[in-house]
Amino acid sequence: MTYHPKSDFMAVMMQRGFLADCTDYQGFDEALAAGVVPGYIGFDATAKSLHVGSLIQIMTLRWLQKTGHKPITLMGGGTTKVGDPSFRADERPLLTPAQIDDNISGIKQVFAKYLDYGDGPTDALMINNAEWLDHLNYLEFLRDIGRHFSVNRMLSFESVKSRLDREQSLSFLEFNYMILQAYDFLELNRRYGCLVQFGGSDQWGNIVNGIDLTRRVLDTQIFGLTTPLLTTSDGKKMGKTADGAIWLNGDMRAPYEFWQFWRNTTDADVGRFLKLYTEIDIDECDRLGALAGSEINDAKIILANAVTTLCHGAEAAAAAAATAREVFERGGIGDDLPTLTLAKDEVGDGISIVQVIVRAGLAKSGKEAKRLIAENGARIDDAPLTDAGLMLDAAALASPVKLSAGRKRHALVQLG
């Protein structure tokens, strides 16, 4: 559709590629133009960090604040006890309250880098839905909230339908998730005046449920806006790589590896990712994305530096870039490579190179490490590693040893 926005926020969403769909383009745009709009995204606490797949949502909230509105980060302390069934083939493992609280404290560290929290009109709020979900009276909830939901309609949502079509079990516990998420929106509107829920396009059904419930119970108009579910140009899910998720917390994924993930962006994705994941001017994003040949590598470095600066700080980005130059351009070691430190008693008379490759994070298993060596994909101190039976003793580790898997993944091994 062709729509010319009045508000800065909606203009950013449309121009930079954040917008998949909106429940009411004009109504939401007019609300944004009229005053401060509080808007939220819910994040279930299923891990100690969010990964790159959540970054489009975080940047949505960052732009909401930068254009004069109020972001709300809703922690799913309550809903995580149920688990979102959306587009999953099986039920999520249930976590204990202690695990959920631990995960929330890890996730909070991510948001603090992107949003300004406080008591001001556009300062971000962090809220836990356990605040209202933990104390619900079941009979009252069924009578006051449950009566507004049509099971026939809930069964028609794609996230539910896809499970049932595959004849995979959908528990009553999971089926309740969409009711709880809708209730979150109602409570956020009632308590904090929240007017919009953001989410990935897979959340459309849940968002519409919340809007409908709030209209029925509070007679209030609220809105929903979804962002595209991103895949890379080669069809891979955003945020996942061969060696696991690209976490946003530095203790779960080193800043150098985070930087390297963006530096390795496919040529065709550079312009799009610059618009979504950085605050670089749109015309400059287009110019950089259109570069060809070896020049596109300069654009990838700009992308990696900008995204890493937002997530880990300018110092970490500069250190990662310096290490990359040292490793790739000069064949050196670099100061910021992921490092495995082995105790002397671990090494003893020698430790298997296969075991070291796995522990350094360059392979997931001994089998994978052996295959890497057999296929000439492993190097030790920049020389081909061909012997899967190699043992490293204390003398070999007297100075740090550089291990490489392919051309782009490296680690140091040293004695503690």
What does this structure look like?
- This protein has helices at 8-16, 25-34, 55-66, 97-114, 130-133, 138-144, 151-156, 158-165, 172-175, 177-192, 204-218, 255-263, 270-277, 282-289, 295-312, 314-329, 344-347, 353-359, 366-374, and strands at 21-22, 38-43, 70-75, 125-128, 196-200, 223-227, 240-241, 244-245, 339-342, 351-352, 378-380, 383-384, 391-392, 401-405, 409-415.
- The chain is α/β, with parallel strands linked by helices and 416 residues long.
- The radius of gyration is 24 Å and the shape is globular.
Indicate the CATH topology of the largest domain.
Answer: Rossmann fold
The major beta sheet can be summarized as: 6 strands, mixed
Uncertain regions spanning at least 5 consecutive residues? none
- Count all strands and give the number: 15
Determine the structural class based on helices, strands and strand pairing. Answer: alpha/beta
General form? globular
Q: Helicity, in percent?
A: 40-55%
Radius of gyration: 24 Å
Oligomer: single chain
The proportion of residues in beta strands is: 5-15%
CATH class of the largest domain: Alpha Beta
Which strand order does the major sheet show? 1-6-5-2-3-4
Q: Number of helix segments?
A: 19
The rounded distance between the terminal residues' Cα atoms is: 61 Å
CATH superfamily of the largest domain: HUPs
Mean pLDDT: 88
CATH architecture of the largest domain: 3-Layer(aba) Sandwich
Q: How many separate structural domains? A: 3
Catalytic activity: tRNA(Tyr) + L-tyrosine + ATP = L-tyrosyl-tRNA(Tyr) + AMP + diphosphate + H(+)
InterPro entries: aa-tRNA-synth_Ic, Rossmann-like_a/b/a_fold, S4_RNA-bd_sf, Tyr-tRNA-ligase, Tyr-tRNA-ligase_bac-type, Tyr-tRNA-ligase_bac_1
Subcellular location: Cytoplasm
GO molecular function, one term: tyrosine-tRNA ligase activity
